[in-house]
Write a structure and sequence with these properties.
By secondary structure, the chain is α/β, with parallel strands linked by helices. Helix content is 50%, strand content 14%. It is built from 10 helices and 7 strands. Helix 1 packs across helix 10, helix 2 crosses helix 3 and helix 4 packs parallel to helix 6. Bound molecules: BIS(adenosine)-5'-pentaphosphate (AP5) and zinc ion. BIS(adenosine)-5'-pentaphosphate binds next to helix 1, helix 2, helix 3, helix 7 and strand 6.
Length: 216
């Protein structure tokens, strides 16, 4: 199974990608997680990316495309992958097309996770993450750990710097301007499926599996 998860910040791309990737034994490739790792380890890329991320702007295409190209060549990605947060611009989508074509790989589906803006803002304000294992939680959800520590690894959960309200507004603007045009791009190629991602997480997962069934 080879899929792209497309959608605004807070739509649930990461939440669903983790579950599906584990279920099908394929790679979960989140450019946001990869960049946060680079920032944490203070690599050259991390140092270049940090100011863009903190202010809710996109990291330059060239840096992202290079990072994803390398990642897609790793062994686990050969069994299949879910791209979460990439591509994010038409330029990134074109670079991905080129790469997949040169490797003779076809995408099974581009899944658009559709959620209204009010729900997105609420989800982002309540999100807490584990920087150690990338697990995602939400203080508004019933399964939020009472002690504020990650259930997988015990690390303390934190709020992402870019989940502050003023940065969230900027990220939503960037999404509308730079990323939403990808919906038309993939619709034109005939492999876009839209999922109502405003319902609870289990239902969203079922809807994705139903729409993409038989492609694993
Ligand atoms: P990135 O980390 O990719 O952020 P994003 O796209 O803004 O997406 P999010 O991680 O905010 O949302 P999500 O859809 O994954 O939602 P989640 O599952 O966490 O990027 C961060 C930054 O890195 C960018 O701003 C940019 O600077 C840079 N970057 C990354 N990729 C780039 C690229 N390709 N090009 C250039 N720059 C790039 O869910 C959100 C919350 O809701 C969680 O708390 C979750 O528990 C909860 N939730 C999820 N689903 C449900 C549900 N069904 N019901 C109730 N709660 C739910
Ligand atoms: Zn953890």
């Amino acid at each position: 199974m080879r899929m792209i998860f497309l959608g605004p910040p807070g739509a649930g791309k990461g939440t669903q990608a983790v579950k599906l990737a584990a279920k099908y034994g394929i790679a979960h490739i989140s450019t946001g997680d990869m960049l946060r790792e680079h920032v944490k380890s203070e690599t050259d890329l991390g140092k270049q990316a940090k100011s863009y991320m903190d202010s809710g702007r996109l990291v330059p295409d060239e840096l992202i495309i290079e990072m994803v190209k390398k990642r897609l060549r790793e062994d686990d990605a050969k069994r299949g992958f879910i791209l979460d947060g990439f591509p994010r611009t038409v330029k990134q989508a074109e670079a991905l097309d080129e790469l997949l074509e040169s490797e003779g790989i076809k995408l099974d589906a581009v899944v658009f996770l559709d959620v209204d803006e009010e729900t997105l803002v609420r989800r982002l304000s309540g999100r807490r993450i584990c920087l150690n294992c990338n697990a995602i939680y939400n203080v508004y959800n019933a399964d939020y750990p009472e002690d504020g520590h990650c259930r997988n690894c015990g690390a303390k959960l934190i709020q992402r710097d870019d989940d502050r309200p003023e940065v969230v507004r900027q990220r939503l603007d960037v999404y509308r301007k730079d990323t939403a045009p990808l919906l038309a791009y993939y619709k034109g190629r005939g492999n876009l499926v839209t999922v109502d991602a405003s319902s609870d997480s289990g239902e969203v997962l079922r809807a994705i599996e139903e729409l993409c069934g038989g492609k694993n």
